Amino acid sequence: MTLDGKNLWSSDFKADRGVYRRLQDIEQDLGVVIIRDIKSSKFRVFGPEDKFLPACEALDQLLQEIQPRSTGHNTEQSRTERATEGDCAVCFCEADQALTTCCGHIYCTICFVNMCLVEASMIGDFSIKCIGDQGNCKKAIPLLEIQNLLLSEIFESVLETSFASFMRRHQNQLRYRPTPECSQVYRIAQPETRVPPIFTCAKCLTVTCTSCHVSHPRKTCAQYKGDASGGMAELLKAKEELGFKDCPKCNTHIQKDEGCNHINCSACGAHICWLCLKTFRDGDDCYQHMGRIHGGIGDEGEDDDDDDDDDIEF
Question: How many other C-beta atoms are found inside a 10 Å radius of the C-beta of residue 285?
């Protein structure tokens, strides 16, 4: 989380009980949930959109209050002393309904549940890592251990969140059945496949072409698209008028409202040049490409902060 380009974070947010209680007060006053992402040294705020700016301002005020005391030579030692043996690795308060991981670190049950749910929803490979020892442990917690530590319905929720995140990252390989309320998944045919296989859903018994993702019995994809070309032409026209494009990696519809021409697809995480739709492994490569090939990064407010790039997923 940033405010006016400044990252709202301090090392005291890791292990200071008093600071944690202040965060709880902000949550209660504004009706939001504040997650401390210790690994990336960032806050994540969940709640009504109109509460986001007040939450940023409250965190900025708290940061200004604690910074003067974070400049001493013994800061790291004092933080270690504040985090005692029985404290939760997340909130650094005495663990409530404590549970202990195989690596020996203690968590409040609710803190552990929230950590699992947040990690499961993140872009990237699914791995829940221990943040004990003030974020230095980083040992992956085995799935079997997570299952043993959580109630069955919460564990199912973690798995569902993880699977949904996995599906978003692999939209060019896997796809949900288009039938409403059908949760079945099929593998997408590769572009070079001459005769794409037909997927028959074991749940709703409908058939789907794994290339064009519709049902067209006894017709090739080309024949079906020819029949439906009128509707397709209208769709393409509407997308052009509304300023939509397709992500070149996962085909998710994306739209740029403002800002520079670096787009970060919220579905698969691809870094995209809006002008030519070339994809890159990170934002820096994209900015270098735009400067070299297109002569600049685009509109006013040229900010290299990825969080300021606008992308909308549909």
Answer: 14
